[in-house]
Amino acid sequence: MKKWVWLTGGLIVCAGFVIGIVFWKFQKEVKKDDPEYIVQFMKENKGNKNVSVAIQYNRQSWVEQHTKEPLPLASTVKIIVAIAYAQQAADGHINPQQQVRLRELETFYIPKTDGGAHEAWLAQLNLNGKESVPLSEVAKGMITYSSNANTDYLMHVLGLQTINEVLTQLDVKGHEPLYPIASALYIPIQLRDEKSLTKKETLAALKDMGMAEYRERALTIHENWLEKPLTKEEKAQAIKMLNLDVQRVWSDRLIRASTSDYISILEKLNSKNYFTEDVQKYLDPVMEHLMQNPRNQEWLTHAGQKGGSTAFVLTLAAYAEDKEGNQTEIAFFANDLNTMEQIKLSSSMNSFQLKFLTDEKFRMRLQRELSM
């Protein structure tokens, strides 16, 4: 059966037999992999500017909903960092085989803030006592496992100015500049300590802060950590500050772009003729982890994707070409989600992509129903 990998987080299992049975039924229903849920969600949110969708099939626009609306990208923005990595590797500015000490990555890691992504990446490396990994593995961990620590480390190595120049090269004028994602999580603590604020006052100050100052603070924290990394105690304090209200501010201030921007990027990735062969040589192993699955190799020529999520956001940018030469690009951004929507969208996105790629009747119905 045709299948491509889609990584989603799990729910905590309740203790107790009766509660366990009820929760099992609830979990089974909520986490059901149902492509029709995505279709229904798009139909119900056609007038909602917090839901932006752009889908192309063989360069024809298939679905368009609020494609110019800038929305928080969450981890989908890491595609830009991956492109910068591949370009610098091709130009010889960085060495993909350079060893990176895991301790250096720990500098940018705040536990319990990435859904277990960084730990999952480390677990599959089979380190066997090794204390370092090649830079290429750091880049793969950023995309495949969505490690925020790896992302901020790569921002340090590649340089934020150079990374943001990629936006100009790609001609995505509506894309906000990148800034350190993990470092921004420490802004509430910095603000609290700097001004001796209560939690409530810290939240109010965060909401009032302009984006220019917010980005500047994230960058300053990022640079300070390079000189003086946080202790375990300081990281624990940071985690305590990140209640749902504070998380919401962090989520709302994540880098924004539109699905129109990302469809244009996905076209370039899918064409295989926009980037040079040297760049593509380093980019494909990072972006196209889906092709490691032998079942995908049977029917796809190439495919890549990057999703992102917070408690309120779910995003996806995916591209694929099948063995018959059909090309698909999907950009799906949703913000201001409730918990149920977030879980159900995450659970159903894989089957929706698969259905769109393989079922012509589904594609035609989707186009017809969403154009009404």
From TrEMBL:
Domain Beta-lactamase class A catalytic residue range list: 59-173
Q: Give yes or no: UniProt keyword 4Fe-4S.
A: no
Which key words tag this protein in UniProt?
Carboxypeptidase, Hydrolase, Membrane, Protease, Transmembrane, Transmembrane helix
Q: Which residues form the signal peptide?
A: none
Q: Which InterPro entries does the annotation name?
A: Beta-lactam/transpept-like, Beta-lactam_cat, Beta-lactam_class-A
Annotated TM spans: 6-24
Q: Pfam families of this UniProt entry?
A: Beta-lactamase2
| Molecular function in Gene Ontology | beta-lactamase activity; carboxypeptidase activity
Keyword Transmembrane appears in the UniProt entry: yes
Mention one GO biological process in which this protein takes part, according to its record: beta-lactam antibiotic catabolic process
Spell out the PANTHER family in the cross-references. Answer: BETA-LACTAMASE, BETA-LACTAMASE-TYPE TRANSPEPTIDASE FOLD CONTAINING PROTEIN
- Identify this protein by name: D-alanyl-D-alanine carboxypeptidase
Specify the species: Lysinibacillus fusiformis
